[in-house]
């Protein structure tokens, strides 16, 4: 079984993407516990042999999807900035939160966070990914005499950001990504003059 993406052909990558997209659609439609491998391959228009070429079972597919999206959330939040860069919050604009656009572009996946019958363990992963990204890569310059780089504050920031994103999802993404970015920048500016990317 091939687990490393760099060993997969473009066709294999495309096949796995189609399987994941079908899986996400089906969970949104009828809940994780009611989705079978047969459902997935029928929706993706592959056969069971193709599914088992890449995955042991449904939990294996779910775990790979979770891990992949967890890493993409972290990576997307950081890739806009060069290591060592000092960014004043006053210079941030509508393109400054890549995470917001990523969420919008992957709405079907993020809607899974709103379901009771969703991928096991998913609910806590968005704030955890944001927290790890903040802890590993960002040092903030506070407004006033506050230790906003302490782990509890970054955890608070992570859960607050995740909460706003999920509330946005609950509204059906009523605000545009630029409007959501503006909201997040406004909150950040209320306590941070800037940040350094490590």
TrEMBL record:
Signal peptide: none annotated. Residues 13-73 form the HTH tetR-type domain. Keywords: DNA-binding. The keyword DNA-binding applies. Residues 36-55 bind DNA. Pfam families: TetR_C_8, TetR_N. It comes from the Bacteria. PROSITE patterns: HTH_TETR_2. InterPro entries: Homeodomain-like_sf, HTH-type_Tx_Regulator, HTH_TetR, TetR_C_Firmicutes. This is TetR/AcrR family transcriptional regulator. It comes from Planococcus dechangensis.
């Amino acid at each position: 079984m091939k687990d490393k993406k760099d060993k997969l052909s473009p066709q294999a990558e495309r096949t796995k993407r189609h399987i994941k997209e079908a899986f996400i659609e089906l969970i949104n439609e009828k809940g994780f516990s009611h989705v079978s491998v047969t459902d997935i391959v029928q929706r993706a228009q592959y056969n069971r042999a193709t599914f088992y070429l890449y995955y042991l079972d449904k939990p294996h597919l779910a775990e790979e999807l979770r891990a992949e999206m967890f890493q993409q959330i972290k990576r997307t939040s950081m890739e806009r900035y060069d290591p060592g860069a000092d960014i004043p919050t006053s210079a941030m604009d509508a393109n400054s939160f890549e995470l917001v656009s990523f969420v919008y572009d992957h709405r079907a996946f993020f809607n899974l966070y709103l379901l009771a019958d969703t991928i096991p363990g998913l609910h806590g992963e968005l704030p955890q990914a944001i927290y790890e990204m903040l802890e590993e890569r960002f040092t903030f310059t506070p407004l006033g005499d506050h230790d906003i780089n302490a782990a509890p504050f970054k955890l608070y920031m992570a859960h607050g950001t995740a909460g706003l994103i999920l509330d946005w999802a609950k509204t059906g993404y009523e605000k545009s990504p630029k409007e959501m970015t503006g909201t997040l920048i406004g909150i950040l500016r209320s306590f941070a003059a800037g940040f350094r990317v490590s």
